[in-house]
Amino acid sequence: MMKAKVYGIDGQPVGEVELPLAFTEPVRPDLIMRAVLSDQSRDYQPKGSYRRAGLETSAKYRGRKEAWGSIKNMGISRLPREVLAKGKFGRVRRIPSSVKGRRAHPPKVEKTLIENMNAKEYSKALSSAIAATCNTALLLKRHKAVAAELAKLQLPIIIDEKVESIAKTRELLAFLNKFFAADIEDAKSKKKLKTGVRRKRKTQRRSYRKSILVVAGEGAAVLKAARNIAGVDSVSAKLLKVRNICPGGIPRITLFSKNSLKELLVF
Fold first, then answer.
1. Where do the DSSP E strands lie in 2-51?
2. How far apart are the C-alpha atoms of 244 and 254, rounded to whole Å?
3. Where are the chain's structural domains?
4. Which terminal CB of the chain, N or C, has fewer other CB atoms within 10 Å?
């Protein structure tokens, strides 16, 4: 089996650990991208309009010549018009081209939004994404600022229990700066305002470039400590998704804890 170095809280290797078979999986960019799109599609919210919208009106079509109150030969378009007193012709309603008319093709709740993926296929995509974190060439597509640091490190990066138990954000930031200070600063500087109503309704109005991902065991203190660092994300191994490791289909620098490796054995 493949082995990797374990890094301690001082940033130095403290031992070795055997890696799960997922790290030896061939990298399949096509499967990874399909799984990312499947993950993203699950965030979509079904949207639909009221079925009778634009149709709750007295307007009716009176274009037949023989009909009472016919519009024919009146010098106006024969379209559904509001029914007024004494046979008067009202405004055009009901049709898509009219004011307050129905929509031609409204959004429908029954539309299929989620792009499903076979369970075995997704499991293979997740293993492929985990293996992609060991590929320096792929990581450099996202992390050009730390090319020299990546060349020195043995991938993947495994952290020990002391790092996993860090509960303070400043302590975790100090640990990450020992490896990837330039990348964290780069992610912090590349921020942009969110668009539309998201800016008003969210407490975090800015989005940052994706930097480092921390994967730890369930309930680890480091998961909470990583929340407030710009560009850094954290997730427990049990809830790990392909979109966490490879946002946009490109892998990111990922730190795995020793405890998380036990939960990755299922892939």
1. 3-7, 13-18
2. 10
3. 3-44+115-266, 49-112
4. N
pLDDT tens by residue, 101-149? 999 999 998 999 999 999 999 999 999 999 999 999 999 999 999 998 8
Closest CA to 135 of 152, 151, 149, 155: 155
Please give the class, per CATH, of domain 3-44+115-266.
Answer: alpha beta
Any residues with CB less than 8 A from the CB of 80 and at least 6 apart, and which? 59, 60, 61, 92, 93, 94, 95, 98
SS3 40: helix
Q: Which two tokens stand for residue 161?
A: 């229990």
Cα–Cα distance, 77 to 68 (Å, whole number): 17
Residue from 104, 101, 141, 88 nearest 252 by CA: 141
pLDDT 10s digits, 227-241: 889 899 999 999 999
Query: What angle in degrees, to the nearest 10, is found between the helix axes of 29-41 and 119-132?
Result: 120
Report yes or no: 5 and 158 within 8 Å, Cβ to Cβ: yes
Strands 254-257 and 157-159, by their bridges, are: parallel
* In the chain, alpha helices (H): 29-41, 119-132, 136-139, 147-152, 161-164, 169-189, 198-201, 222-225, 242-245, 258-263
Report how far apart, in Å, the C-alpha atoms of 170 and of each of 8, 146, 167 are. Answer: 17, 21, 9
